[in-house]
Fold:
Amino acid sequence: MDSQLRETGTRHQWPDRVFHWTMALSVIVLCATAFLPILGLRFDWVPAHWISGFVLAAAILFHWLRVGLVHGVGEMMPGSDDLREVLLDLRARSGTLGPAKYDAYQKGYHWLSGLVVLVLAATGLLMMAKIDTPWWRRDPSILSDAQWGIVYVAHGFASLAIIFLVILHVYFALLPEHWATLKSMVRGRGPLLTRGARHEQEH
Amino acid sequence: MEVLRYTTDVYGRKLLVGASWDLLWVPVALAGLAIIVHQVLRARRRAR
Structure:
């Protein structure tokens, strides 16, 4: 392995780990409360669904604050080296790339899942207008029936997409070659780089 | 297999009510397929 990839340190600070696991837990609760009733398990799923949706929305806001005030977006922005990394992998070749905390696949996953979660959160927050909460009474008249239909379709397809993304995320996290990265999301310490200067086929 | 779900309102109009849950197996199958493809590629790379 590239010696740069063995260099360890604080990969994820504790507020970011708390964010990650809060988001993970809320997404699991959201998926369970959304899909178990569809699969035939009958229970009052609405309160747990909207409360965990609120938790997810708050977690997203917290993440944006951390990005804006602490991290910046630089480490997660795709660049030409990410495209080269994918091309090298497709050709099964090694090559020289810029070292990076996140590789091309992690960045791709982050932006795709970020988009899907944003659609879910935005449409979910709109749908909050259709239920009574301690803070407001339901008011479905904010949108027409046709507009609600579009909101439901977007929420539904995004929820199908999140199933795909969650399964893949768990699969890749559990691969032995990714254990160090997985542990860093628990303990904080881990490899500072996912991609070293010398890119080898490892996945 | 339906892609969208519709209902009919009190005036008999067709209303869109969401994505069809008949599609629930699709993301699971796609994820399973992606995992199989990745495992095959991974095994080939390790054998090289």
